[in-house]
Each structure stands twice: as C-alpha cells, then as structure tokens.
Amino acid sequence: MTQPSQPGSSNYAVELNGCTKEFATPGGGSYFAVRDIDLKVEPGRFVSIVGPTGSGKSTILNMAAGLLNPSSGTVHSFSEPVHGVNRRASYMFQQDALLPWKSVIDNVSLGLTMAGVSKAEAYDESRRWLEKVGLKNFADRYPHQLSGGMRKRTAVAQAWIVNPDILLMDEPFSALDVQTRQIMENELLQLWQESDKAVVFITHDLDEAIALSDEVVILGAGPGSTVVGSYEIDIPRPRDLLDIRDDPKFVELHREIWGRLKVEVSKTYESAREEEESDAA
Ligand SMILES: Nc1ncnc2c1ncn2[C@@H]1O[C@H](COP(=O)(O)OP(=O)(O)O)[C@@H](O)[C@H]1O
Ligand SMILES: [Mg+2]
C-alpha cells in the first residue's frame, strides 16, 4: 500500500496542501475565499490557474508568496514551510509595482541593491537585463514616460534579475492591448525556456493559460472555491504563440477545458445576478 506523502517531503517549488482561507467580514461573520486547495508545482514547470472573478486566484498566489497565511492547511516551497515572505519567489502583479520617482535602471536594480549588491554591479546586471527585454535605450526614462508594454518589460526585468526559482504572476498582461500582450507572452516563454524556473501564472483568460502552460488548473465558483480540474497541456515546445490558436491540439484542449470552466463561470454570473436582484428588491 502506498502512503500519501507528507507535506513538504517532496521538493516541489510550490506545494499547497489542504489550504483554506477564511476572511473576517465587516458584520462580524466570515467569508471562505478558498477551501481545501491542493497545488503542486514542480521546479521548472509552467502552471496556470484559471477561474472566474472572485474565485480566489489572487488569494492562492498570495499564500504561495507568503503574503497571506492560510487559515488551515500548509504551504511549502522546496521542502521548507513558508512562513512570511517566500524568498525563493518573485511576484509580478497586475498593476506593475514600479517606483514612479526612480528611473528604469534604478527600478530594475532595486532587488539587487536591496540584497546588498554594489550599485556598479547592480547597474551592470540591470543593463544586461534591459538589453534582454529590449529596453537598452530606455535606462534613464521614468515609468510615466513608458508605454504599457515597456512598463511590463521593466517589471519583467525587475522580477527576473534576482534570479528567483519561482515566478508568481497575477494577471500580469491583462491590462495590455491584444497585440502587445501576445508579444509579451512570447517573450516571457522565451525567457522561461532558457531558465529552470517554476512559474505560477494567474489569468482569467483560458486561451492565454493553454498557450503558455504545461498544466492548467481550474478553480470553481466561490465562495469556498476549490480546484475542479487540472489539465496537462502537451502541445510541443517551443511554441509560437502567434499561431498556436490554430493548432488542432490547442482547439481540442480548449474545447475540453472550456466545457468545465463554463459551468463555473455561469454559476458566478448567476449568483452575481441574484445578488443584484435582491439588492434592487
Ligand atoms: N482581505 C480580504 N478580506 C475579505 N475578503 C477578501 C479579501 N481578499 C479577498 N477577499 C474575497 O475573497 C474572494 C477571492 O478573492 P481573490 O483571491 O481576489 O479572487 P480572484 O483573484 O480570483 O478574483 C473574493 O470574494 C474577495 O472579495
Ligand atoms: Mg485576482
């Protein structure tokens, strides 16, 4: 008989076991954002989490990042329990977190200088990264002087320069126009393929999730969302994201996963409508 493995006994980059998150509500009650989440991400894997609005995607990422403690359950990263900020991970938010009063190169250098690297060395490394993300000539600009795509490139360089083992990305490209977004997705995949990093990528866009990932995890409707499905994406790599939506394998996977996701999206839509109707009554 095989024993279930102990939490933290395997070397997963991210390992959530039975994680539930309950938030206190203003009226003195409580709200279960997610319930019994099991999520295991091996080093070097690209895993996306897809779910309707409010299904707890950001809550899960925040638990993996150590920014939020689960109410019950455990979080491990490379066999270590995560208590406080997960130092093996870099975080990329939907709204980029660039400091407006710092130039591009100073924003990118930040992680290194805060880790005690000398400014000269941090600048050398930042220049290498700015070149990699196509911003060689923009080192001295300030964030407000950049386009949306350029700000994202700066944020990518900022997250990667510290060489984390894990990238936690919360709908990083959702605010971009469709073309810029596809370019950024392609660039992200290229960077990732040259690396051995684990990526946990949150999106509400199933196309994006399938195109990028090795595995797509589907969250159910809230409250108390939990994982309702997990799909292996065996489309060969390297992938060209500009053409991938025509790939028969993509079409087939999309049909199958959407069949499951659709149910959860409809539930979320129905309960939002009921709430609106009872508010109106
Ligand atoms: N700090 C908090 N306090 C109370 N409720 C919260 C808090 N953070 C998130 N929630 C609630 O938990 C649910 C899940 O939120 P979130 O993880 O942001 O979902 P998603 O990222 O999938 O849209 C939502 O209903 C949200 O309102
Ligand atoms: Mg969110």
From TrEMBL:
* Molecular function terms from GO: ATP binding; ATP hydrolysis activity; glycosyltransferase activity
Q: Is the keyword Nucleotide-binding in the record?
A: yes
SUPFAM superfamilies reported in the protein's UniProt record: P-loop containing nucleoside triphosphate hydrolases (SSF52540)
Signal peptide coordinates: none
Q: Which UniProt keywords apply?
A: ATP-binding, Glycosyltransferase, Nucleotide-binding, Transferase, Transport
Q: Where is the ABC transporter domain?
A: 14-246
Cross-referenced PROSITE patterns: ABC_TRANSPORTER_2 (PS50893)
List the Pfam families.
Answer: ABC_tran (PF00005)
The domain of life for this entry's organism is: Bacteria
Query: What is the designated name of this protein?
Result: Mannosyltransferase
Give the source lineage, highest ranks first.
Bacteria, Bacillati, Actinomycetota, Actinomycetes, Micrococcales
